[in-house]
Amino acid sequence: MKTVLVTGGAGFIGSNYIKLMLKKFNDYQIVNVDNLTYAGNLENLAEIQNYNRYTFIKADIRNRKLINKLFDKYNFKYVVNFAAESHVDRSIEEPEVFLTTNVIGTQVLLEAAKNHWKIYPDDKYSTEYNDGVKFLQVSTDEVYGALGKEGMFVETMPLKPNSPYSASKASADLIVRAYNRTFGLPINITRCSNNYGPYQFPEKLIPLMINNCLNDENLPVYGDGMQIRDWLHVKDHCEAINAVLHKGQDGEIYNIGGNNEKANIEIVRLIIKTLGKSENLIKYVKDRPGHDRRYAIDNTKISKELSWKPSYTFAEGVEETIQWYLDNSKWIENVVSGDYKNFYLRMYK
Ligand SMILES: NC(=O)c1ccc[n+]([C@@H]2O[C@H](COP(=O)([O-])OP(=O)(O)OC[C@H]3O[C@@H](n4cnc5c(N)ncnc54)[C@H](O)[C@@H]3O)[C@@H](O)[C@H]2O)c1
Predict the structure, then answer these.
(1) Separation of 193 CA from ligand 1 center, angstroms?
(2) 196 Cα: distance to centroid of ligand 1 (angstroms)
(3) Where are the domains of the chain?
(4) What number does CATH give the domain 2-348?
């Protein structure tokens, strides 16, 4: 049995990833460590909560003592670090927690991994580690900053993050890289574009617009709505992480993207059309400070080296996602009302 520490597994991407891994591999044991911030929702994992190969632990990745204890208890082979504060708007309101969770929390995990995986932990020059171990840092394309009308992000570009969120993720990437270069810790970093799909918290563009449309509420669009993002279905992201975990070259960074550049307003119009609503719901609001204009990912490296490619077209992915939100109105209701927070108390206390 291979034991994987997944952090932030009660969030949007982490919960999709855990379910994918358990389905794909019979010999994987997953330990999900999440401190259940507003974004952590155990209802995302309700269908697997009683699996014997799945364990949930409510813990903060910044808690050094506890993280070390978990490394003592479980013989982790891999760490996949999703845990993060992930919403740009919130990072403008409250940057500090982005630094403590995204940067310090990552360093806590790296240090524990180094100390537990090193064959000769007392020898500072030794770079020998247990066979096959790996630390995978889930990062974002936002670390590169913004693009003009032309060009795409490639892995060798300098990091020029513009928001406190992306700056904290870029800082985490650098400390992960440093643990590889200084201590020889086996690592990979993945940098993915915007995700969409089931179980996304309805503060992010696509679920927010679907939910507001369904309730005939205004659809707030920042500025002129012409901010361009490269959209990828969450399941394709999870498959890419899986490819990097098993086949990624030590120390390498892999961009992950869907070759799906869309302006925000195009997405809003598509959702309105699919749900048969009126464009009068659109309400342009003052743009957020430092809003990056365009992101685009060059995914040549992961496609060529690891033979990964997205399986969804944007049209089918969005249609499936809208249908999921229609079929799971209770999930959205619980999130919007805050009732999802009681799930932990009901199930685990
Ligand atoms: N959503 C995207 O489009 C996207 C794109 C590229 C990269 N990413 C990255 O992927 C990762 C997951 O993103 P997401 O959209 O699933 O985020 P999310 O906000 O839905 O989930 C984050 C999870 O981390 C947990 N968490 C937060 N602070 C913690 C702490 N101190 N200790 C333990 N757990 C903590 C939360 O409770 C939550 O369950 C993040 O690192 C994010 O930067 C996201």
Answers:
(1) 14
(2) 13
(3) 2-348
(4) 3.40.50.720
